[in-house]
Design a protein that fits this description.
mainly alpha, 94% helix
Length: 142
């Protein structure tokens, strides 16, 4: 066997020390990064909790508003149905009134036509009587 030169052992020891220092440095960097990430993670978790709380409050308010609009819509629908029923009733009453008025107008028109016929006949009767009286007077004067 050959002997190991004297410089190999210190070189290996220095190399191992450099490797150990590098590993410790990498471990320190990893630890620092991990602690930084943990701190950022906690801050982000707190922000997300605030956002979640605000979102829940907004959702609750929106739910209340939507329920209010639904109640308002139901109330308006009920009033509209009542108004439509009232209008329907009034239209039926108006239709009945129009029927009665039409019958009255027809009866009045028939009565007026009958009266005009009677007046014309009476006028012709009176005209005949007047002419007859006029002839008698003329006959007496002669």
């Amino acid at each position: 066997m050959t002997a190991i030169p004297d410089w190999v052992a210190p070189t290996v020891a220095i190399s191992l020390a450099v490797i150990a220092v590098c590993l410790v440095a990498m471990g320190g960097v990893a630890l620092a990064v991990g602690l930084g990430l943990r701190r950022r993670s906690r801050a982000l978790t707190a922000q997300l909790a605030d956002v979640n709380r605000d979102a829940r409050a907004l959702a609750a308010r929106l739910r209340l508003e939507i329920e209010s609009y639904a109640d308002l819509s139901a109330d308006a629908r009920g009033r509209l149905q009542g108004a439509m029923t009232a209008v329907q009733t009034r239209l039926e009453d108006l239709d009945a009134l129009a029927d009665v008025l039409q019958e009255e107008v027809e009866e009045t028109a028939l009565g007026a036509a009958s009266l005009m016929r009677t007046v014309r006949r009476s006028g012709s009767v009176l005209g005949v009587a007047r002419r007859a009286l006029g002839r008698r007077r003329a006959a007496r004067e002669d």
